[in-house]
Amino acid sequence: MYRIIWLLTISLFLTFQSIWATEITLAHIETNKGTITCQLYTKAAPLHSQNFIKLANEGFYKGLTFHRVVQGFVIQGGDPEGTGMGGPGYTIPAEIMLPHKKGGLAMARTGDEVNPDRESSGSQFYIDLNDLPQLDGGYTVFGQTVDGMDVVETIARRDKIIDVTIETKEVPDDQLKPIELTVAVIETNKGTIECELAEEYAPQHCQNFIKLAKEGFYDGLTFHRVVPDFVIQGGDPEGTGRGGPGYTIPAEIGLIHHRGALAAARTSDQVNPERRSSGSQYYICHKPLPQLDGKYSVFGFTIKGLDVVDKIAVGDVMKSVKIEKRIVDYQWVTE
Question: Residues 161, 232: one domain?
């Protein structure tokens, strides 16, 4: 009798252990310096993950090199030509969403001038040597280094990728950390624009935008300024470019004006030397605008609806702005 109870107890334990575990996908990048293991974010970036798995299983990466290494920035590989110009002959639609944290695995791509849709290289990947917020909103992150960061830091130009192998692994749910994004859903008469808010790097701007959105401040306002190949601008209750909620926000300048960047408008340096932002007026970039970097506070990035951004004209209406919390994937926490 006791033996039966013991067996039932073990069976139930194994059953619940299975229920409380989740399958993740790991890529083991074996190099001449050691092995780097990255978790692939198959939910947040399914197209990139599936493509990387396919190439790895086909042996595409065997024997290739890291053709680009920039100290303190990235290591880059996956080019069969070893020049930065090669690949499998196709690109991958952008899945720009996740931030560039140290150890982040992301796809390289050509510049916005020839690639306005920001499609990724079919095979070239890079791993971040540090947190790189300047790349957020510009490139697709599809994984994270979970083991072998010490190897990443020793990689030099022309070091070899011996092989890339894929493993599926069940890990306990208590070792998985939700990756949660705050998303502003801007419903317009031309369609929906979704912007991820960069709360870590511009907390005051994000908190203010969330507050106004929840109060319904933006509902029914117009885009009062549209400059082709530059920006669309809205959030002024007067519709003149001079209105707002009656206050300004301290500058949080640092992030980059990529295509689709969400930033706060402000008055000029002559009357505003501290570069404080408007309390409500914001703009979204049509294209990269490096001339604005270091001058205005970027506080988010368009993750869906860039085609809508491109259609907006003066007088178009924001029907509503809603704030959503989204869990887009889970990160395996190994320590």
Answer: no
* Same domain assignment for residues 140 and 213: no
What's residue 334's pLDDT?
Answer: 82
pLDDT tens per residue across span 268-301: 999 999 999 999 999 999 999 999 999 999 999 9
Answer yes or no: do 247 and 223 share one domain: yes
Encode pLDDT of 180-216 as tens digits.
Answer: 999 999 999 999 999 999 999 999 999 999 999 999 9
CA diameter of the chain: 87
The domain boundary residue, chosen from 178, 207, 225:
178
Total domains present in the chain:
2
Q: Which amino acid is at 109?
A: R
pLDDT per position as a tens digit, 293-320 = 999 999 999 999 999 999 999 999 999 9
Query: How confident is the model at residue 318, as a pLDDT?
Result: 98
Q: How many CA atoms lie within 13 A of 234 on its CB side?
A: 25
Give pLDDT, residue 150: 98
39: left (phi over 0), alpha (psi -120 to 50) or beta: beta
Closest CA relative to residue 106, chosen from 41, 154, 60 = 41
d(CA 259, CA 51): 25
- 170 and 289 fall within a common domain: no
Domain shared by 66 and 127, yes or no = yes
The reply to whether 230 falls in a domain is: yes
Examine residue 184 and state whether it is found in any structural domain, yes or no.
no
Full-model pTM: 0.90
CATH value at residue 68: 2.40.100.10
Q: Residues near 55 by Cβ (< 8 Å), separated by ≥ 6?
A: 61, 88, 123, 164
- Distance separating alpha carbons of residues 301 and 319, to the nearest angstrom: 20
Residue 124 and residue 201 in one domain: no
Quote the CA–CA distance of 236 and 246 in Å, as a whole number.
Answer: 11
In this structure, what token pair is assigned to residue 155?
Answer: 């990689």
Q: Which residues contact 214 (CB under 8 A, 6 or more apart)?
A: 323
Provide the domain limits for residue 106: 13-178
DSSP letter for 280, please: S
